[in-house]
Amino acid sequence: MIDDGFRLLPEQASTHAPRVDLLxxxxxxxxxxxxxxxxxxxxxxxxxxRSGNVRADRTAVRNNAMxxxxxxxxxxxxxxxGIFGWGATLYFTGSRPxxxxxxxxxxxxxxxxxxxxxxxxxxxxxxxxxxxQPIKLTMISQDVIHSLFVPAFRIKQDVLPGSYAxxxxxxxxTGDFHLFCAEYCGTNHSRMxxxxxxxxxxxxxxxxxxxHANEPPAVAGKRLFEELRCxxxxxxxxxxxxxxxxxxVYGRDVLLRDDQVVTAxxxxxxxxxxxxxxxxxxxxxxxxxxxxxxxxxxxxIQLIAYIKSLATP
Length: 313
Prior knowledge:
Shape: elongated
Low-confidence stretches: none
Number of strands: 12
Order of helices and strands: HHEEEEEEEEEEHHHEEHH
CATH topology of the largest domain: Immunoglobulin-like
CATH architecture of the largest domain: Sandwich
Mean pLDDT: 84
């Protein structure tokens, strides 16, 4: 919750936060242990072997330190590998949203965050989400590199122009939480802030219903699809078929003219709209014109949502 008081760490407000903090505390503990151990040994040996201290002649002593050498090599190696595995597990857990996550679209631009809910409701610099519901954010930048950072949720994801990036969270507390851009993006970077408002599910539904009516992205995408005359080539009802049909294309493997196979995910669809000659489907000619500069990122999201809606579950 937003609080101007001093805190050593942000509060934990997501399912991911306690796991991240546990690793952080372990690393702090290991660093403190090694620091104290090395400092204590330095003090001990400085006193024991100080100048003028009389000790027995040790010139003939031959100690076999092989066990010690192996120990202080193997033990730190195993600890380091354990930390790596721990961190990798957290990374993959945080980058793979669970099934059934609510998908929200995010467009970052100088200097604001634009959010769109599945039903079409839009927000700027505010994001309302329900408590206890996994939320998947599919994000893209309209200009430069940004980075979405919610400290209380322990999530931070770079948002790049020209490519979709995903992250997810599940809020465990209601309230308002800070949202920042964590990547310097221009003169007003420090003002690119916002808040995440976590509501009880019933309150979130009431908030959705109480807002201004907005078209779902797929509906707006269908209208834009028709306005741009895309059906002229992509409709299977029109002969001759000049371009690949879009029915059920999303999520499927696509064979290209160079015999490469790619998955028709969101990044592929976006590239096909803006740079259609980059990956031409086998059996078709590169006839489609580029829509680069004719549609913005929000319209691209709408077109992709419409194409996704054509896929049979």
